[in-house]
Amino acid sequence: MGDQIQFIVEKLNQEPFRKNYNLISFDSLESLQLLQLLSDVLGEIDPKHAVDIREEQPEQTAKRMLNLLGILKYKPPGTVPDLSAFRQGLVTGSKTVIHPVLHWLLQRTNELRTRAYLARFLVKLEVPAEFLQDETVADFNKQYEELMEAFKNLHKEHEQLKISGLSTAEIRRDITAMEEEKDQLAKRVERLKKRVETVQNHQRMLEIARQLRLEKEREESLAQQKQEQKSQLFHTEQRLQRGQAQLKEMQDVVADSKPESLMKKLEEEINFNSYLVTEKIPREMESKKTSVYFLQKVVAEPAMTQADLSALESEIDEVSAQMNQLTEKRMIKYEPADSKFSMYRQQASIISRKKEAKAEELQAAKEEMSSLERQVEQKSSQAHELGGSEVLSEDEFKQYVIKLRSKNTFYKKKRLEIAEITAEYGILQRTEELLRQRHEAIQQQLQATEEKKGISGYSYTQEELERVSAVKSEMDEVKGQTLDNMSEMVKKLNAVVAEKKASLAPVIKELRQLRQNCQELTQERDEKKIQYDSCAAGLETNRSALEQEVKGLLEECAQEESNYRYINCMKRSLEIQLQRAKEEMKAYVSPDAQERRRAVREQYTRIILEQENLGKKLREKQKVVRESHGSNMKQMKMWQDFQQLMECKRECFLKQQNQAAIGQIIQEGGKDRLVL
Fold it and tell me: pTM of this prediction?
C-alpha cells in the first residue's frame, strides 16, 4: 500500500498535474478533495470529465465516473467485496476505493487516453428492436455501423503511419536538397534556353524533340504490353497443356477401366468427401470456434496478477477433484460394458481411429500435392522468363518413373489395407449384432428361469457385487500406491528443505546486511530524486519557453525566405522581359536592313502581308470557279451522256459479233453433214 501511494504522489507531482504533494499531505486529503483529484485525472484522460464536482450532485458524479471507468474496463480489486460497495465507496470518497483507481489510471494514462478517445466513436448506440423495424431507422443504423468500421480502419492506418513516419529533420533535409536541385535545374534550363535561342527554328526542333520523347515513352509502354501479353500467352499455353494432359489421362483411364471400377472409385471419393464434410471438418470448426471464443474471452479480460492466477489454479484443482469424485460415483453406480463385447468395441474404436488417421494423411497428401503443383507452376514460369527449358533429362525421367511406380505400389498397398479394414469392420459389425441378439435371448431365458425359481434379479445382483468388488480392489491398490508415493515424496521434500536451509543460512545473513544498506541507499536516492525533479522541472520550463521562441523565429525565417525567393523569381522574369524588349527595340531602330528584318515586328508584318496576298489569290480563284461552274457542270453532263452512248454502241457491236460467230458455226456444221 505504501508503494502504491508513493507511486501516485510521484505521478501527481509530474506534468500535467503538478500538485506538489508529499506522502503526508496526500494521505491527509479529505473525501471531497480525493473525488476532485480523481475527477481531474479522468479529465486528463477524457476532457469531457474535467469538471468541478461541487457544481454537480454526488449521484451524478458517481454515475459519470462509473460510466468512464466501465468504458476504460476497470475492475475493482479483490479487497472490495462487491460492486455496490465499490459504488458506495466512490460516492463517499473512500480511500480504499479511490487509491487503487488512481494507481490503475496513472499506470497507463496514455493507453487509457487513446481508449477514451476511441470510445467516443466506437461505443455503439443500442437501438431497440421495435425501432429497427422501421426501414429509415434501419438504414441509418447500418450507415452508422459502416462509418464505425471505416473509422476503425482509418485509425489503424493513422497509427501505422505514425510508427513508420519520417522525422522532421529528415524531411527538412530532403526539402533542402530538393530545393538545391531545383535551383541547379533552373540554371541549367536558362543556360540551355539561351544557347538554343541562337539556333534557327529552335521552336520546331523543340517540338520534334517533344514528339520524339512521347514516341519513346509510347514504345516503352508497348514493349511492356508485349512482354505482359507474352507472359499471359505462356501461362495460357501451360494451362492448355495441363488441360490436354488431364484430358488424355482421363481418356486413358476411361479406355482402360470398366464402369464398375469407375463407380467404385467415385463411391470411394464420395465417401471420403462425405466423411470430411459430416465428421472431420465440423469437429475442426467446433474446436476452432471454441479456441477463438476462449482467446477472445482472454483478450477481453484485463491484465491478471499473480494472485488472480493462484485463485484460478486453486479453482481448477477443486473442479478437477469434483470431477474425479463424480467419475468414481458413476463407475460405482452404472454397470460397465459387457466383457464379451469389450474386445469388439475396442477393435471398432481402433478401426475408427485408423480411419481418421488415414483420412488426415490423405488430406495432407492432397494439400502437399496442390502446393507442389503451385511450386512447379512458379518454377516453370521462372524458367520461361529466364529462357530455360522444361524438358527433363533421361536420368531425371527414369528417376521420375521409378518414383511414380513406387508411389503407385504404395498407393495400391494402402488401398488394399483400407479394403481389408473395411471388410473386417463389416464382419465385426455383423458379429457384434449377432452376439447382441444372442445375449438378449440368453438374458430373457435367464430372467424367465429366475422368475420360475422365485429368485428374480439374482444374476444382476451377483454381477453388480462382482463389479463393485473388482472396482474396490482396484481403488485399494491405487490408494496404496498413492500413499507410498506420497510418503516417499514427503521424505524427499523434507531432505531437500533441510539441505536448502543449511545452504541458505549464510546467504540470509548477508541478505540482512544488504537490506539495511539498500534501505539507506533508497532513502538517499529519494532525497536526490526530489532535488533532481525540482531542478528538472525548472529546466523543462526554460526549455519549453526557448522551444516556443525558436519555433516562432523559424517560422518567421521561413516566411521571409519564401518572400525572398518569390521576389527573386519575379525579378528574374522581369529582367528577361526587359532584355527581350531592349533587343527588339535595338533591332527595330537599327539602320541595318538585315538587323531590322530580324525584329519580331518586321517578321509579323511580313507574315501578315504574305497572308493577305495569299487571301487575294484565293478569292480570285474562287471567283473564277464560281463563274465557270455552270458551263463545267453542263460539259460534265454531256460527257456522261456521251460515255453512256458509247457504252451502248459497244454492247450492240459485241452482240452482232456473237450472232455472226454462231451463224458461221451452224453453216460449217451443215457442210460437214453434206460431206458425210
Answer: 0.29
